[in-house]
Amino acid sequence: MKIKSAYTGWMWLHKWTADGAQFRVRFEECVKELAYLGYDYLENFTFLRDHLTPEQVRKVCEEYGISISALYTNLEAEEETLKRDIDYVAQIGGKWLICSSPNWPKDQDLDSPPDWEEVKREAELCNRLGEYAKSQGIALLHNHHSYTPVCRRPEIDLFAELTDPQLVGFCVDNGHAAAAGIDAVSLVQDYADRVAYVHIKDLDPTLAWRGRGLSWVPLGHGVLNFSAFFDALDGIGFEGIVCAGLPAGCERINRFESARLSRIYMRSALGL
Questions:
Q1: Which of 140, 138, 139, 143 is nearest to 100 (CA)?
Q2: Distances (CA, A) of 51 to 33, 108, 158
Q3: Mean pLDDT, the chain, as a whole number?
Q4: pLDDT at position 208
Q5: Burial letters for 19-30: b for 16+ Cβ neighbours within 10 Å, e otherwise?
Q6: What is the mean pLDDT of residues 257-266?
Q7: How confident is the model at residue 271 (pLDDT cuts 50, 70, 90)?
Q8: How confident is the model at residue 1 (pLDDT cuts 50, 70, 90)?
Q9: What does the pLDDT look like over 158-197, one tens digit per residue?
Q10: Measured by CB atoms within 10 angstroms of the end CB, which terminus of the chain is less buried, N or C?
Q11: Environment class of residue 256 by beta-carbon count within 10 Å: exposed (0-12), middle (13-18) or buried (19+)?
Q12: What is the rounded CA–CA span in Å between residue 105 and residue 30?
């Protein structure tokens, strides 16, 4: 498979969103360390736009020989803000804007009833954003983040039905699929024509105290079946980018070591 590797760098930056100078220092640290580890690309959140000009982003990435593949955002933002995010992705040389649904309140669990009106609202919004993104040379992707209005299979299926495949692709995530109780292999196979980008994670169920089943660990240190998942990707001829990453609080030693452990696994076990 001609798959490229990526890692999400938000762990380097999330603490510094109120301090522009430190944010810029940490961004360069993130780029340098992920390039050193041999990742082909890096991903980040759209909060880059608040602290770095497109020229600054491109300059740092060029210095260390790595490119930004995508930025990640949330559909709770205003539509005009999301369009500015699309513009920014294009300006920094990225190819995708990945969006997820707004997070559920902390007391809402996976047994809650679907909010079909919210699914419809997001589908309509994504169709409009996808059309705008296409006009800017960017692809809009939806990520089925667990504990959001579009994370369980019936919700994903309705969202897919209501969105134009030419305007809205999918970022499939094996970890969030597992957390939401759906089969990532079936998701890949059933939506083969829409899978444009992949997030991979690993889970350790003994660490459920972290909340909502999001007990992420570096790749290869949990229980998820990567063999079946990558067989499914191979089966649909996927040749895109596979991006690993961990939320804050899930680091093994520190953020660099977590990225290093995942990179080792991607090379040795997955051939990336």
A1: 143
A2: 20, 33, 37
A3: 94
A4: 63
A5: eeeebbebbbbb
A6: 95
A7: confident
A8: low
A9: 999 999 999 999 999 999 999 999 999 999 999 999 999 9
A10: N
A11: middle
A12: 31
Measuring CA to CA, how many Å separate 117 from each of 2, 157, 159? 39, 14, 11
What does the block give as tokens for 142?
């939806």
Do residues 101 and 126 make contact, with C-beta atoms less than 8 angstroms apart? no
Residue with tokens 């919210």: 118
User: CA angle 176-178-182, nearest 5°?
Assistant: 100
Measured CA to CA, the distance from residue 168 to residue 75 in angstroms comes to 13
Has this prediction a pTM greater than 0.90? yes
Q: Which domains does the chain have, with CATH numbers?
A: 4-268 (3.20.20.150)
Cα torsion 231, 237, 241, 244 to 10°: value is: -10
201 close to 224: Cβ distance less than 8 angstroms: yes
